[in-house]
Give the backbone structure.
Amino acid sequence: MSNGIYLGGGGGAQNEAQALLLKQANRHGIIAGATGTGKTVTLQIMAEGFSKQGVPVFCADVKGDLSGIAKSGSETFKLHEAFASRAAKIGFEDYTYHDVPAVFWDVFGEKGHAVRSTIAEMGPTLLARLMNLSETQEGVLTVAFEYADDENLLLLDLKDLQKLLIHLGDKEVRNEVSLRYGNVASASLSAIQRRLLQLEREGAEQFFGEPALDLGHLMRTADDGRGIVNVLDATRLINSPKLYSTFLLWLLSELFEQLPEIGDPDKPKLVFFFDEAHLLFKDAPKALIEKIEQVVRLIRSKGVGIYFVTQNPRDLPDSVLAQLGNRIQHALRAYTPTERKGVRAAAESFRPNPAFDTGEVITQLGTGEALVSTLDAKSTPGIVQRTLIRPPSSQLGPISADERAGIMSASPVARQYDKPADRESAYEILLAKEQAAAEEAERLAEQEEEAKREIEKKKTRRRSSGRQSVGEAAVKTATRTIARDVARYVLRGILGSMKRR
């Protein structure tokens, strides 16, 4: 299809093809369904379709399966016959195997090029969410960022922020900052430092630093015009769900801030798949959910389409669900009252099809089968259709470590992100100030000691010069007085005896 992404067909007598129009792809969407129902394969075939149309893609690979998109499928694959049969059943006549141009990324730099952001780019709001800070602690963190800006202290990595907090812990500095920006309690500083230590243990130290990710590197096309699929390996990252969700939210926010307004383009500039999307909203404060809603609502006019991948649509707030025009619903289970309520809610989100009961069909769908409703040319939701999802053209399942290494070495960003940089920033500046202050204190101490030594020397010289001390002068004075009195007494006696004669 020249103007859309082919998703699959009904496989019945009418065999209606289901497609996602490129012009409506920036209206966002959702891929939902229980574990094992085929969500990852649907994501894979959509990424293939966007790439073929020259649209770059970013997707998180939570299970490690998506790496196979970089390698062509094969007729020797054990599911080849099932794939060929399905392609024939849905009328997918030009079904062939091929690879997709891909770049691998990894926050930890192990299974892809290192992805980094600076502390300053992340900002106090997202950092506060990442560290699960209270409102008061977030306020102190915001003050720390303001102080750093005013003092020209670059915050690039964790040690920069740690050093800044230690600096603010100094009583004189804290008092001055409190007068300028508001109260900074030492207890809040200590709490933030403890959370930073926890982040460091979870591996966040590798994420913060330079060179920071250039968003332009996520929006490239290959030499043959196909869009590059950027695969973020999240098999380890998902073990730190707060870091995972905060990183992807940061990425969305940066795209929103940096990209210009372009209205409704003929095709997206980038399509963003957010797997395990429920983590984005779990325990999120109201203010943050409002921020996410704003980004989702407005980023489409910048040419970015966002597709949330989750188990149940109810994992997302209603305010966000309302922004998702394209919907693919795989099977849901309904064993408990809560699950049955979720099935009803999912069914009611579709435009009804008079041919079947949507709520009933959701629980009957097989693996690789889904209910599909996409926007038409007038942005009207299509009637929901029961659809067999087309088979992938790239490899189903992960590639080997050697194959991944070979793709990484030939990557257009090879060696640009693999080696960290550490230029002068807050840590080095504050450390230099501390060293200068310590040297000045040592110099003053030496001057004071030298002054004491000079005083002692003067005292010694006075004693060695023969000058009598105060005690000695008092004794000599008393001696002279006594001698005069004795002499006067003796003289008076002599003179008196002479006069009597």
User: Anything to note?
Assistant: The chain has 16 helices and twelve strands.
